[in-house]
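Q: Predict the bound structure with adenosine-5'-diphosphate.
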Amino acid sequence: MAIKQFKTESKRLLDMMANSIYTNTDIFLRELISNASDALDKRHILSLTDSNIKEDDPLIRIDIDKANRTITISDNGIGMDRKELEDNLGTIARSGSYEFKKDLSAKDEADIIGQFGVGFYSAFMVSDNVEVLSRKVNEENAARWTSDMDGYEISSAKKDDYGTVITLHIRKNTKEKKYDKYLDKNEIRSLVKKYSDFIRYPIRMSIDSYDYKEDGKSEKVTKDEIVNSMIPIWKKNKKDISADDYDNYYMQEYYDFAKPLKTIHYKVEGNTSYTALLYIPSQRPFNYYTSDYKLGLKLYSRGVFIKDEAKEIVSDYFRFIRGVVDSDDLSLNISREILQQDYQMNALKKSVDKKIKTALENMLEKERENYEKFFDCFGSQLKYGCYDGFGVNKDVLIDLLMFKSTYEDKYVTLKEYVSRMKEDQKEIYYASGESLETIKKLPQLEKLLDRQYEVLYFTDSVDEFLTSVIREFDGKMFKSILKGDLDLDSKEEKEQLEKKNEENKDLLEQIKESLKDKVSEVRLSSRLKSYPVCLVSDDNLSLDMEKILKQMNQEGVKANRILEINPDHELFAKLKQLHDNNGDIGEYAGLLYSQALLMAGLPLEDPEDYVKKITGLMLKAM
Ligand code: ADP
Ligand code: MG
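A: Predicted complex:
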């Protein structure tokens, strides 16, 4: 009997596979089980149209023989005759998407294997000798194909029933790789669970367990078990799935103790047909902001597990979504793992993103309380998504954003804000700060509240930065109440203020002088009501942004500090008096500035000096 040579290409790919230690060798089992499942499908389909072809109870079996170092995968599917063994296993089918390159460097080769699903040949990653015994349905004779990778032989054989038995002689352990694990029943069972749990046909294995007797002794018993669960929850009919089923699946799969906030289960038919089961968690995973957090969705193709953490099928700004996408179309690719470049991936991503967005919009509209819970956990994510890439995705996300506001300390969307703006209100006001409490105490807030203007609380560090990419909503600009000129006054009021500033020029200059570089300007303003002073910045960088940038080690950037004084406050009248009497303004200038710093939630620059001065004043007063 002659040993036949593999076609050159096949041989080369085989060598690459066998010698690569970078590849995920576990997937050989997935490939062989998938082939068995395909063979059962084929027998089933033929039995529908050809009355001569009968179906047995379809079955896939895995047997392990530790002593002889073999693992056997059997099926009672369609089987192969001699010619088919030769045709199907003698050459590696060339695929349009894959052009074999003869001049690959060793490194590229390793990469290709890592990405390349190679079906039957992946058996050689774990085995140096493969035997395929097969008997085609309704054929009398069986045939045996064997290969040690150098070439292959085909001979006639006997087999009792139809189908295929594939026996792999498992490689010996090497320094880099422990092949012995493929002879461990529990290991194999968990690989079946991981990769092939939703194969439609039962996969049987004999599993060892121990029976404990009354006298305390145990006896090893071997039981035949079906190790796959066959129908994934997302493939079931919606009406057959209870809310508990959905929740339990989620909690098991993602190790979450809490039920999901929202479950999204849907099916899309069309160019890219797929089923998805998506979840919004009800709490932020403890490792959400660390690199441990698993991004992306689980990707299946016709029930066969392709990969975990598929980032390419959902946008990063929805990274809080967990779940599964199972597509019918992807398996058409010969390369199971070169998915990133696939246009199908992009189509999937578009579709998945859209569904998530719609689900969130519906929640916002119809389940406000739930949506607010969601926003508490993941709202920042949406804001960062808006900000990222100079706002490329802002149009997708902007309607999903919410901020708390002075209206009733509750969340408000921008749409809601604009819809209840006062008639004479021109801009969307916001105030940034550490917390609601600090913002509520801002001296700058009073006047706006008097006018019943709603002010958004910007407490997330990303909030104010967002305004640089959003800029406006519904034609209304964003305006910080802590920056620049609020422009609330009438023309006459403005002129009056101008005049007052002019009249008190000397006093203001003296204050500025004694504060030196601490402030860029000292001016009277109409911003304040009951407080004597406040600190604002010019239209560029705000004090809050400066603080955040500092936390991000951007020390150099400084906001322009402007000290504003309330001309209607009693304290100003006193200052004027003192100035008119040629008193020393300098001592009080420092105190005014310190006050303003404290109210802005900023640290005092010289606490010791401040305490000394206050103590001095107290002593004088008491
Ligand atoms: P693919 O499954 O993508 O076609 P494989 O390399 O996995 O590529 O398998 C090559 C071919 O060998 C299959 O298309 C099928 O015709 C045949 N084959 C493999 N395993 C079996 C099996 N268990 N029963 C019947 N035919 C099989
Ligand atoms: Mg295959």
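A: The pocket of magnesium ion (ligand 2) is lined by residues 31, 34-35, 119 (CB under 6 Å).
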